[in-house]
Write a structure and sequence with these properties.
Elements: E1 2-10, E2 13-19, E3 23-28, H1 35-47, H2 51-54, E4 72-80, E5 85-93, E6 96-104, E7 109-113, H3 115-126, H4 130-137, E8 138-139, H5 146-149, H6 152-163, H7 166-194, H8 198-271, H9 280-350, H10 355-395, H11 409-462, H12 464-545, H13 550-648, E9 654-661, E10 666-672, E11 677-679, H14 680-683, H15 686-704, E12 710-714, H16 722-734, E13 742-747, H17 750-753, E14 758-761
Parallel strand pairs: 3-13, 3-14, 8-12, 12-13
Antiparallel strand pairs: 1-2, 1-4, 4-5, 5-6, 6-7, 9-10, 10-11
Helix pairs in contact: 4-15, 7-13, 8-12, 8-13, 9-11, 9-12, 10-11, 13-15, 15-16
């Protein structure tokens, strides 16, 4: 049972929550109130789709309420099953179902958050798929009698799909298609073996096998010969190597003796006039002492150089600092001289007046300007009044515009003249005041300029004390830096003198070291001469003891080359035999493969024929099973409809109802009392058609969705007259409660709403 649904941003619903009860739940409201969208939300919560989405009349993005602040729609459905209460949530965002979840009443997650996982879980719990729900339980507008509106072919197709019989038809077609494909493959295989000469192939295989055995025998004989010659070759090779080694040794010793004799001659020529007063050991000792002294001097020179460079760098830094201080001192002296000039200029300005006097004059000028402006404004007001009176006098006819007394022309002219004269006097005063104000403003600007200059100069003069103090500090620093510079210059001169002494001493030792190195070289040559003379004597003795025969080596070499040629010829023959054997083996493998292929094809033909026979039997079995299942389903539907009809139909004209099935169509029929069965489509009234189709929907729901005892009707009274509506109301109130746990009706008909146990107005 569906207990509750909550919609957020779902189509026309911003936030709607509806509680449902057992029995009949009627959703009443005008067109566009969002009644049908509630049913769509129920279907979407259960299956993740509904008819309009499946037909692509709507997109997922259309489910989100237009102009909503967030582009997210959410459906929450509470569903009571036999065993538990399930809370189903689906969230739509950015044109797709972003999240789906099923929880129990304690909030434990049972499935999700993947929508496909939720769909599988609910299908398993409800034992119901979306097709059965949408075609039996959920009747949309104008679709209660959809069964009667379809063509025979469409009706046959839809009901077969509803009962799952279309799968048998599809399986039968696939059987025929597969059998045809297998038969075609079998025909191709039979064509292959038809012209195959298996006897000739067997003879060829036997001949190739004998040739291969003969070649293997010859190869084994050749390998034995090659092995024997290889052993002889190895023995000869060993002897040849030994002789070559001896000959090489003799040649090398002879060449070594000649080379050493030449070196000995050259050394004797170099040392013929040399007399050595020291031996090599004493010369090396003196060289080590000089080298050690040079190393210490070089190290001291390097350290002194680093100190000298560091002090020179410090002297350069002091020079830079001294230059900066001298420049700063010059700048301060220049600034102080400038301030002295400003003092003189300030005295000139104070002749006009000091700061306090000038401030007073500026304030006085401002007050006079204000008074002048006020007086000018007052006079201008008076001029405007006089001009107004003058205008009134000039336009007056025989009476005074002020006192209304009789006004003669002479008096009028006199008054006009007086007014004009007064206006002229006042205007002259206004002009005079304007000139005075302008002069005062210029004087004020001049005084303010002098005042501003005095203030700036005063500020500059006030800085003089700081400048004097800074000048004294710079002078002290200059004295200090100059002292450091002179001291550092003396240190650098001393270090430079020490550095020069190091260089002189190092040059002297380098010269002595060079002379000793030359003497060491002569000592080494003398020792080398003695060593070479001894080596020459040793080699001469060794050459006398060695005897080598080149003729013996030539004979062995010739025998060795003969064996190599014989082995190469044998190996060439082996390679040729390998190639011949490989070719014969390939042909043999090819013939054996053809023979095996022949046997395989013969076996495949038998297997394919067995498959064709099996598919033929299976096709007939599918047809038989389809017909048997159709009869059983129709029988079950008719049993339910027969029991329903007596409850749904309140009259006596039609005593029973049934659904007939044939190869071409399904026909819904009614039976008159003790008469023949008549097609509902041709003879029943509108109300009778509606009840017959309602009985058919209920029967299919009972048979195909036994665990979901619910029916949904969307605008069921569409196109029904009052009598049919009254019949439907009576059926809902008095007949359906025994067959359904819940009935949902969407309507705008208030009469139908009276049949509800739970009326929901939208």
């Amino acid at each position: 049972m569906i207990k509750r649904i909550k919609l957020q941003n779902w189509k026309s619903h911003a936030e709607t929550e509806i509680n449902f009860t057992e029995g009949t739940n009627v959703l009443v409201g005008p067109m566009g109130a969002g009644k049908s969208s509630v049913l769509q939300a129920i279907c979407f919560a259960l299956f993740g789709t509904f008819n309009e989405l499946k037909r692509k009349d709507l997109k997922i993005s259309d489910l989100v309420k237009r102009n909503a602040q967030t582009k997210i729609a959410q459906v929450d459905l509470e569903l009571s099953t036999q065993n538990s209460v399930l809370e189903i949530k689906r969230i739509v965002e950015e044109g797709s179902t972003k999240e789906a979840a099923v929880r129990n009443k304690e909030g434990k997650l049972l499935a999700g958050t993947n929508p496909a996982q939720v769909n599988m879980f609910l299908k398993d719990v409800l034992k119901l798929d979306e097709d059965v729900f949408l075609r039996t339980i959920y009747a949309k507008q104008n679709e209660i009698d959809l069964f009667l509106q379809l063509t025979p072919l469409e009706r046959k197709t839809r009901l077969d799909e509803l009962m799952g019989l279309d799968k048998f038809e599809e399986a039968r077609k696939n059987c025929v298609k597969l059998a045809n494909q297998i038969s075609l493959k079998k025909d191709i295989q039979e064509e292959f073996v038809k012209d195959f000469k298996i006897e000739n192939l067997a003879k060829e295989i036997e001949s190739l096998e004998k040739d291969s055995e003969d070649i293997d025998t010859e190869k084994n004989n050749i390998r034995l010969q090659v092995q024997d010659m290889s052993n002889k070759k190895l023995e000869l090779n060993t002897k040849i190597k030994q002789l070559r080694t001896s000959l090489d040794d003799y040649t090398k010793l002879n060449e070594r003796a000649q080379l050493l004799s030449q070196q000995l001659k050259e050394l004797e020529e170099k040392l013929v006039s040399v007399e050595l007063d020291e031996d090599l050991q004493s010369v090396n000792f003196r060289l080590r002492e000089i080298k050690s002294t040079l190393s210490e001097l070089q190290r001291g020179k390097s350290n002194l150089k680093e100190d000298l460079e560091r002090n020179q760098k410090n002297a350069l830094e002091l020079e830079k600092k001294l230059g900066a201080l001298e420049q700063k001192s010059a700048e301060l002296i220049e600034a102080l001289a400038e301030i002295e000039k400003l003092k003189a200029y300030l005295q000139e300005l104070e002749q006009i007046g000091n700061l306090a006097f000038l401030e007073g004059r500026v304030q006085t000028a401002k007050e006079v300007i204000i008074r002048t402006s006020d007086e000018r404004s007052q006079i201008l007001g008076e001029v405007n009044v006089l001009k107004k009176h003058l205008l009134e006098l000039e336009t007056a006819e025989g009476a005074c515009p002020v006192c209304s007394a009789e006004l003669e022309q002479t008096k009028k002219n006199e008054l006009i003249s007086q007014r004009r004269q007064k206006i002229a006097e006042l205007q002259a005063r206004v002009d005079e005041l304007a000139i005075n104000a302008e002069n005062l403003k210029k004087e004020q600007a001049k005084i303010e300029e002098v005042h501003e200059k005095q203030r700036d100069i005063t500020k500059r003069i006030e800085q003089m004390e700081n400048l004097l103090r800074e000048e004294r500090e710079i002078a002290i620093q200059l004295s200090q830096v100059k002292g450091k510079k002179e001291t550092l210059a003396e240190i650098i001169a001393q270090m430079q003198q020490r550095f020069d002494n190091f260089e002189v001493e190092i040059i002297s030792l380098d010269a002595e070291y060079t002379k000793l190195a030359e003497k060491r070289h002569l000592c080494e040559l003398k020792e080398k001469e003695n060593e070479i003379r001894k080596e020459v004597e040793r080699i001469s003795s060794e050459l006398v003891s060695k005897t080598v025969s080149p003729d013996e080596l030539a004979i062995l070499q010739e025998q060795y080359e003969t064996i190599i040629r014989t082995v190469q010829e044998s190996e060439s023959r082996l390679s040729s035999l390998d190639y011949i054997l490989e070719e014969k083996q390939k042909r043999l493998a090819d013939y054996n493969e053809k023979k095996n292929k022949y046997s395989e094809v013969k076996e495949q033909i038998k297997v394919l024929q067995d498959k064709v026979d099996f598919l033929s039997q299976f096709k007939n079995a599918l047809l038989s099973a389809q017909e048997s299942l159709r009869k059983e389903l129709i029988l079950a539907v008719n049993e339910v409809m027969a029991s329903l009809w007596t409850q749904l139909y309140p009259y006596e004209k039609w005593t029973s109802i049934k659904l007939d099935a044939s190869e071409e169509d399904y026909v819904l029929r009614l039976r008159e009392r003790e008469s023949d069965w008549i097609s509902v489509a041709g003879f029943a009234s509108g109300g009778e058609r509606m009840l017959a189709c309602l009985a058919l929907r209920l029967a299919f729901a009972k048979v195909l969705a036994q665990n979901f005892n619910i029916l949904i009707l969307d605008e069921p009274t569409h196109n029904l007259d009052d009598r049919a509506i009254n019949t439907l109301v009576e059926v809902i109130q008095n007949r359906l409660s025994g067959f359904l746990d819940q009935l949902f009706i969407v309507t705008h008909d208030e009469k139908l709403a009276e049949a509800g146990d739970n009326i929901i107005r939208l």
